[in-house]
Amino acid sequence: MKKGATTRQDYNDLLLNIIKKTASRDEFSVRLTPQETFALRSRIHLSDGDLKIMKSVFKKSLGFDVLSSRCSVAELRKKCDTSDNYDIVLLPKEKIAEQGNKEKVDTVRVTMKDVEKGISRRVEDLEKSNRLVGVEDQLTLCLSGDKGADETKLCLSIENVSNPNTPDNLMLVCLYEGHDNEEELQANAQDVLEQWNRLDKITYYSKDGIPLQKK
């Protein structure tokens, strides 16, 4: 910037130069945290390649990157991953084709392996982020089912949050292609329903590492 210059472009250049220098520091407040970057990626369904392109665009256009590193986001994603607690299997199913003839197709069934573990993990996350409310000695849990199109879903929700009816509060327990009648529920969701019936307490750790137990 020329000495004594007062144009808008000069001020923009000065501001960008200041931010570029600040952006190299870890405490740079304009950059999104790994948690915020992960939330952004999840909300708008960015792939790792999309995130890489977005970071490149910010760097090229602004001269600095407002997103956290892909490695930090990947590490956070690993911590949030719950796929290890699900069984995902392909099941052959007979369907009526458009021509009216029967054909066999593969369908997917997803079931939670350990319902208590899944609930404990979710409650622990809510506790650590100060989103668990109205809890003294008891947790209020709700098991609900939904039949939409060709699929039936069973989901759990924890009612001890400020907005329990949001879809973000739902935790998938079972998903299969078929009806929600007794016969198909027993064939596809019997194990998780039996786990639900046996459930009488939940054990989890507080943010201070103290084991807690709720009925």
Automatic annotation (TrEMBL):
<dbReference type="Pfam" id="PF06918">
    <property type="entry name" value="DUF1280"/>
</dbReference>
<protein>
    <submittedName>
        <fullName>Uncharacterized protein</fullName>
    </submittedName>
</protein>
<dbReference type="InterPro" id="IPR009689">
    <property type="entry name" value="DUF1280"/>
</dbReference>
